[in-house]
Design goal:
By secondary structure, the chain is an alpha+beta fold. The protein is built from five helices and five strands, in the order βαβββαααβα. It binds protoporphyrin IX containing FE (HEM). Belongs to the cytochrome b5 family.
């Protein structure tokens, strides 16, 4: 069962060559060796991330489902994080940070609507109040 095989970051880091290239995406370890020559995005980019966490560059490209299927086929195991490893969660964090900022701006949008709504209600209230006042002063 290849999925259950665990690699430390140090294990992965030793597979950086064109004939032996492991990459990490979302904490899973993939043997990209066979795919290097076939990669539509070129072999350079894969060699660049050989032995490293490629979650961020992989996701940045917006790879298709087909690309993800190919990736699944290259799975050799999962990453076992050790204390002191470069935190590839930085990539995950960056990804979640951008999601967070996206939801933040969504929150802003909702806040803006709420503001317009509250402003509208206040204006309507003021209008009614003035109307009643002018009625009573007649
Ligand atoms: C083993 C991991 C990877 C697999 C299986 C893979 C697979 C693919 C596939 C199938 C495509 C064709 C378009 C698509 O279906 O989305 C593609 C395009 C591309 N990939 Fe990857 N990719 C991998 C890793 C990476 C990484 C780490 C980068 C880093 C920058 C990268 C950069 C690109 C680029 C720039 C394209 C666009 C090429 C073009 O449209 O001219 N890929 N990849």
């Amino acid at each position: 069962m290849p999925e259950t095989k665990e690699f430390t970051y140090v294990d992965v880091q030793s597979h950086t060559g064109k004939k032996d290239c492991y990459i990490v995406v979302h904490d899973k370890v993939y043997d990209a060796t066979k795919f290097i020559d076939e990669h539509p995005g070129g072999e350079e980019v894969l060699l660049d991330v050989g032995g490293q966490d490629a979650t961020e560059p992989f996701e940045d490209v917006g790879h298709s489902d087909e690309a993800r299927e190919i990736l699944d086929g290259l799975l050799v195991g999962k990453l076992k994080r050790m204390p002191g490893d470069p935190a590839p969660s930085a990539a995950t964090q960056a990804a979640s940070a951008s999601t967070a900022s996206k939801s933040d701006s969504a929150g802003m949008g909702v806040g803006l609507y709420a503001l317009v709504l509250v402003g509208g209600i206040a204006a309507f209230g003021a209008y009614k109040y003035l109307q009643v006042k002018s009625e009573s002063s007649k």
